[in-house]
Design a protein that fits this description.
Keywords: ATP-binding, Nucleotide-binding, Transport. By secondary structure, this protein is α/β, with parallel strands linked by helices. The protein has helices at residues 63-71, 111-121, 127-140, 156-169, 186-203, 214-220, 251-265, and strands at residues 21-32, 35-47, 52-56, 78-83, 86-87, 95-98, 174-178, 207-211, 223-227, 234-239, 272-275.
């Protein structure tokens, strides 16, 4: 595959399974004072059911803008985004975003009410059923005993767990996470990565996750799309089902991190696939 290809990277040669999410030749632009800024150019990739798909790149490469486009908050200037084979034309409860700013829980609602609220507002469940679903996902993120507490009683990491429970309670087709742990200290961030993976093992949701941390990408993801500096273009994709949380200090893990760094910042155009499965 050469640097001019616009075809999305495939999960496996000969696979007949249809992707859940397809980003096809997407160019994104936004208005800035006196000019139009191109955030991404001709980006293509596929995400399958239960993938943990990472958008990795330096600040300004358009990865968060891509996430907004998948969320339906920004229309592509060129290309198309498909979910279940249908064009994404706006926001929807089938795509829920968890942002970096975790401290946005209404302080007058209990944790249980905070998690249940979006489900109730969507009209999908009544109050009793929404609260039952909130209890289910609070148990999944280990916060059942704080269900009756208010947000000011929780640490930053716990608030982010509430945000994840609230998103999963909507039972979206794709969970979108925009650098969700970047505002946390290093130890809490690592713990949240571990908890996210443990939750994924139980629930098997589909994840599209934005980060600028190579280590976080390798820990969280089973597939990693590398985006070039501004404007963002697909430089490479790494497919790996073998990384685990114990491998962070291993020579293999460090070698992969070094190789990703080279792929991200090598000035030569790259479009390749590296499979460590």
């Amino acid at each position: 595959m050469d640097g001019t290809s616009t075809e999305p990277f495939s999960r496996a040669a000969g696979s007949t399974q249809a992707p859940l999410l397809s980003v096809k030749g997407v160019t994104l632009e936004y208005a800035a004072p006196g000019r139009i800024v191109r955030a991404t150019q001709n980006v293509s990739f596929d995400v399958w059911e239960a993938d943990r798909f990472i958008l990795l790149g330096a600040s300004g490469c358009g990865k968060s803008t891509l996430l907004k486009a998948v969320g339906g908050f920004l229309a592509p200037a060129e290309g198309q985004i498909l979910l279940d084979g249908r064009p994404v034309t706006g926001p929807g409860s089938d795509r829920v975003v968890v942002f970096q700013e975790f401290d946005q829980l209404p302080p007058w609602k209990t944790i249980r009410e905070n998690v249940a609220f979006p489900v109730r507002v969507s009209g999908r469940l009544g109050r009793k059923e929404a609260l039952e679903r909130a209890d289910y996902y609070l148990e999944k993120v280990g916060l059942s005993r704080f269900a009756g507490a208010y947000p000011n009683a929780l640490s930053g990491g716990m608030k982010q767990r509430v945000a994840i429970a609230r998103a999963l309670a909507m039972e979206p087709r794709v969970l979108l996470m925009d650098e969700p742990f970047a505002a946390l200290d290093a130890l809490t961030r690592r713990k949240m990565q571990e908890e996210l993976l443990a939750l994924w093992e139980e629930v098997r949701f589909t994840l599209l996750f934005v980060t600028h941390s190579i280590e976080e990408a390798l820990v969280v993801g089973n597939r990693i799309a590398l985006l070039s500096p501004h404007p963002g273009r697909m430089r490479a994709e790494i497919n790996s089902h073998e990384w685990d949380l114990q491998s962070g200090g291993s020579p293999e893990f460090q070698s992969a991190a070094t190789r990703i760094h080279r792929l991200l910042f090598d000035e030569a155009p790259i479009a390749t696939e590296i499979d460590h499965a």
